[in-house]
UniProtKB/TrEMBL annotation:
PANTHER family: NMRA-LIKE DOMAIN-CONTAINING PROTEIN (PTHR47129:SF1), QUINONE OXIDOREDUCTASE 2 (PTHR47129). This is NAD(P)-dependent oxidoreductase. It comes from the Bacteria. Residues 6-182 form the NAD(P)-binding domain. It comes from Alteromonas alba.
Length: 283
């Protein structure tokens, strides 16, 4: 059996869709906080088990009989290390053979504030004795596509990435890669994958593409990190999220979101989705 945590989330659902292409639904376990949101998964014949990252005993029960586990990193920044440790401990207790963890691109050298909790999780996983494979995901293109609407309304796209190149990929690509690795007959224990899109771009280049596809001139407006964060908060984003996004842009300016290894497309067996196609779909 293969289990997926956060199974009703955006990434989790996509991973399950791809797992279903190579596995019977009865062999998939969807671990969720709210089973009501997983009624469609249950209808497909997938085993839905309720557990929260902060509930160690529930996690142990949820992982009973599971051979492989995808631990999708928690979205609760500041609490993630303890939450991830709970899942890893439960996996060890349940005798899980392989735990795949969605970490961060080039996490060892990353200047991003997000890197700290991922590094601590990786360290704990290494010491746990549980067999693991690290999926160090780069930036999701959707993180920037979400800003296209506001950019069109306000005649400008703001950020703090300067001329840093960004090798993002679609969430769908990361999900497919995770499923392929979990379904692989090739031993994965101990492997580390730095995953990113085939293309790279600056935010100015992204804006030029949006301008071409939308027919409306959208300039890129680069701001100091603190001003970008303040603008995001003024737009209604929670302070922690605004600070994280501004920090990530600042990290991109230092090359933290760039990778040209094409490891992701090698895992997929096909090119990652093009930026142009993703922009068109978003528009």
């Amino acid at each position: 059996m293969i289990a997926v945590t956060g199974a009703t989330g955006q990434l989790g659902r996509l991973v399950i869709e791809h797992l279903l292409k190579g596995l019977d639904a009865s062999q998939i376990v969807a671990i969720v906080r709210n089973p009501e949101k997983a009624s469609d998964l249950k209808t497909l014949g997938i085993q839905v088990r309720t557990a929260d990252y902060s509930a160690p005993e529930a996690l142990k029960a949820a992982l009973t009989g599971v051979e492989k586990l995808l631990l999708i990193s928690s979205s609760e920044v500041g609490q993630r290390v303890v939450q991830h440790q709970n899942v890893i401990d439960a996996a060890q207790h349940a005798g899980v053979n392989l735990l795949a963890y969605t970490s961060l691109l080039k996490v060892d050298d990353s200047p991003l504030m997000l890197a700290t909790e991922h590094k601590e999780t990786e360290s704990y996983l290494l010491q746990s004795g549980v067999g693991f494979v690290l999926l160090r995901n780069g930036w999701y293109t959707e993180n920037y596509l979400a800003s296209i609407g506001p950019a069109l309304e306000n005649d400008g796209f703001i950020g703090s990435a300067q001329t840093g190149r960004i090798s993002s990929a679609a969430r769908e690509d990361y999900a497919e890669a995770a499923a392929r690795i979990l379904l692989s007959d090739v031993p994965q224990t101990g492997r580390v994958y730095d995953l990113a899109g085939d293309e790279s771009y600056t935010l100015a280049e992204l804006c030029a593409l949006v301008s071409t596809e939308s027919g409306k001139n959208i300039p890129y407006i680069d701001l100091p990190q603190d001003e970008f964060s303040a603008a995001l908060k003024q737009a209604g984003l929670p302070s922690p999220l605004a600070d994280m996004l501004a920090d990530s842009d600042a990290g991109a300016a230092q090359g933290a979101l760039f990778d040209d290894s094409k490891t992701l497309s090698q895992v997929l067996g096909h090119p990652t989705r093009s930026l142009r196609d993703q922009v068109r779909a978003s528009l």
